[in-house]
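$ run holo --ligand "FE2/S2 (inorganic) cluster" --emit tokens
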Amino acid sequence: MADEDFVKVASLDKLPPGEMMRVDIGMHEILLVNLDGKIHACSNICAHQFQQLNYGELNGEEVRCSLHGATYNVVTGDQLPGKYAEFGPIPVYEVRLDGTDILVKRPAR
Ligand code: FES
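-- output --
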């Protein structure tokens, strides 16, 4: 994987453990999550009606959409059984660290 496929999106000091934040790569909104010091990246857009997941509630590996309650695993992108489960999953993205820089693999189109 070429290094140019990865984009710096944030610094570790802006994303403490247990927190999430939205970043953008071009037209793609990405949700970054710090789970016990390991950074994960998934789409920030709910598969149901496109609410931004950074407005939702993070509980461990799960983020719950603020609009109607669909819940996703931020590590796998899988939608958990329950509300609107037929709309998932959401994309997840590869993450690398370069010192304190968080890099995410550029989404395909
Ligand atoms: S927009 Fe997320 S559950 Fe409806």
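-- notes --
DSSP finds no helices and ten strands in the chain.
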